[in-house]
């Protein structure tokens, strides 16, 4: 590992790194010289992330794997305390873990059960708030960076299929802005990335079978009003943006912003999805 790698000497904690965007992010940081704490509840998938990091030639003592539930305060304490114990500091916190849940009765919109609201807010918002509180002291010492993973579901478009998920992400965007201004006085930067559709375990975690997920992505990719770019995003596309926002040399003057990476999805309005001239001619 070259000592000139851009994150050499940095310690990074990536939540939700047992899968998807978090896994790609942890691997990228490790490849670029960082020591990484990886985490998730699923011990097997977490081990898979660790093995991928080791396969890339990273020394084992650069990786700390902690299987725990981030929705609990004990889990969060474990993450911070064990990271400090092993690596002695924390430079970069990536609040990436997140999920959406379907209502047992498949209700959407106003009727979606409020227990779903509680579960979603707990992992997508509350855990970000409390983990950032617990990390603050170390981030201030390191003059570090926080990168939150939001979503284009935050709006301004409506998201009636999963309103509480969308609300959790719009609240997260406001948290990013507000905390960025609070922490920059201590030299800590906070920013976020808002992905569009990305090929991860997210839908499977919601209970979508693999074949249905393939059908879903095929549809999105073949409809330019869904993804103008024409293909779904890959976890590494988002990992590169997270690394950019955590790299003070490249992004030092960006404070409290979210970078949208969605293949153009949010730029398309419904009324532009059809060729009006053809419709008016018929
Ligand atoms: P994945 O399901 O692939 O990964 C989610 C990660 O979060 C997993 O590592 C999972 O670990 C972890 N996680 C979820 N709940 C908990 C919990 N209670 N405790 C600890 N870890 C938890 O999905 P993505 O990679 O897609 O999701 C990453 C982020 O990206 C999320 O915040 C999501 O909202 C956001 N996003 C994703 C989009 C997409 O299209 N994929 C689009 C926009 C935003 P484990 O299961 O092992 O606990």
Automatic annotation (TrEMBL):
<protein>
    <submittedName>
        <fullName>Uncharacterized protein</fullName>
    </submittedName>
</protein>
<dbReference type="GO" id="GO:0016491">
    <property type="term" value="F:oxidoreductase activity"/>
</dbReference>
<dbReference type="InterPro" id="IPR020904">
    <property type="entry name" value="Sc_DH/Rdtase_CS"/>
</dbReference>
<dbReference type="Pfam" id="PF13561">
    <property type="entry name" value="adh_short_C2"/>
</dbReference>
<dbReference type="InterPro" id="IPR036291">
    <property type="entry name" value="NAD(P)-bd_dom_sf"/>
</dbReference>
<keyword id="KW-0560">Oxidoreductase</keyword>
<dbReference type="InterPro" id="IPR002347">
    <property type="entry name" value="SDR_fam"/>
</dbReference>
